[in-house]
Inverse folding.
């Protein structure tokens, strides 16, 4: 993989410091060692509707949630391709753990748009802090002298019960009316310690049940002007690859979770077949069936293709980020195109594994039925939706690229 050269190109460090490649290898190895314990607790995770605190703490202590941040902020300064491998490992062990890991990794790169003083305060007190947030601007930030008075109720705040900091996106208002810009209502992101928020336990979902994606609430909280920031259009407070538009990475991280879920389903199916399972009236064990072997081969090919696209895409994105040539319109359109295809392919893989699992797969005790619910839930996210194919298609046809989300 070409990531080693990329890492050398952008890291300026003293000889005594560990090389980012060493940190990446250490973290990947540690996650692989942790994965069996996570997988063994999947029922506990689902029944509790959250990731257990000790698992979240383990991920924090390993440095996962500062993996992409520069060393000047206490980060590991790894690469996005490194992180994609890590997310695959965790999602294969448990879909909800993989999802929370993805949220935490993504939040750290979006928070580079915060003022440097805010970043330093967050990571000085707790360099392994888990930050989560909601990008949908459903809150209201009323302008007051020196800052804002923030209120709102944000849905789908995955990992809020494990977080140390929570962010909420708001429409800026003056005298109760949205402040308008040439691109529509002005918005700001507000990042506050988790104890400033109220969590409403509303997460009752068919899949990704263990993500604890509850509503979070703020009631008339005053926030200084200097702590508000532009989530999508603001400049990065840190130098290096994260100065680029980080939205394309978000698409690849979503794809990595889908690949992990599909990998876990394939592993579950193989384990079942290798246990000596024989279908009713069958002449041979399941694993010896030529039809079964054929279908497993087809599904595995699709899984390999999904993994290859995800990794190729994120390596391309990271290379351009290092070179400073990321294009917010074309690269995001391509990233969303890739994520949509990968999620569809992985949904097909998991559905195929479930079908090959036979009648036992319908039982709540089967991991295959949980994987099926999880992948279909993950595919409902905006960054997995096939409606973004059109943006990539327009680019292929030679139209002037526009931002696939804002249309501008």
């Amino acid at each position: 993989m070409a990531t080693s050269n990329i890492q050398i190109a952008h890291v300026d460090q003293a000889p005594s410091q560990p090389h980012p490649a060493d940190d990446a290898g250490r973290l990947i190895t540690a996650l692989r060692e942790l994965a069996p314990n996570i997988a063994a607790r999947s029922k506990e995770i689902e029944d509790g509707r959250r990731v257990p605190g000790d698992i979240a703490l383990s991920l924090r202590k390993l440095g996962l949630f500062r993996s992409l941040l520069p060393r000047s902020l206490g980060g590991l300064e790894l690469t996005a391709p490194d992180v994609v491998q890590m997310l695959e490992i965790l999602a294969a062990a448990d879909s909800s753990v993989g999802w929370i890991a993805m949220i935490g990794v993504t939040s750290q790169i979006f928070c580079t748009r915060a003022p440097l003083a805010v970043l330093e305060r967050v990571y000085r007190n707790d360099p392994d802090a888990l930050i989560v947030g909601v990008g949908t601007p459903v809150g209201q930030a009323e302008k007051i002298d020196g800052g804002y008075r923030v209120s709102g109720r944000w849905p789908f705040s995955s990992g809020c019960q494990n977080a140390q900091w929570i962010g909420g996106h708001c429409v800026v208002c003056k005298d109760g009316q949205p402040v308008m810009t040439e691109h529509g209502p002005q918005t700001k992101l507000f990042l506050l310690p988790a104890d400033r928020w109220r969590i409403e336990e509303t997460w009752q979902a068919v899949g990704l049940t263990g993500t604890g994606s509850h509503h979070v609430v703020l009631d008339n909280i005053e926030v200084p002007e200097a702590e508000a920031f532009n989530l999508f259009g603001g400049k990065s407070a840190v130098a290096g690859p994260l100065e680029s538009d980080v939205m394309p990475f978000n698409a690849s991280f979503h794809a990595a979770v889908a690949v992990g879920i599909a990998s876990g389903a394939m592993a579950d199916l193989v384990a079942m077949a290798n246990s000596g399972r024989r279908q009713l009236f069958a002449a041979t064990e399941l694993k010896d069936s030529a039809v079964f072997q054929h279908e497993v081969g087809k599904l595995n090919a699709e899984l390999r293709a999904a993994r290859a696209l995800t990794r190729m895409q994120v390596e391309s994105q990271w290379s351009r980020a290092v070179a400073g040539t990321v294009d917010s319109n074309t690269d995001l359109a391509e990233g969303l195109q890739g994520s949509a295809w990968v999620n569809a392919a992985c949904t097909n893989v998991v559905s195929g594994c479930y079908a090959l699992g036979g009648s036992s797969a319908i039982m709540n005790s089967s991991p295959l039925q949980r994987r099926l619910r999880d992948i279909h839930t993950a595919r409902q996210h905006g960054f997995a939706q096939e409606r973004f194919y059109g943006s990539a298609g327009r680019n292929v046809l030679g139209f002037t690229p526009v931002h696939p989300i804002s249309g501008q």
Observations:
- The longest helix spans residues 290-323.
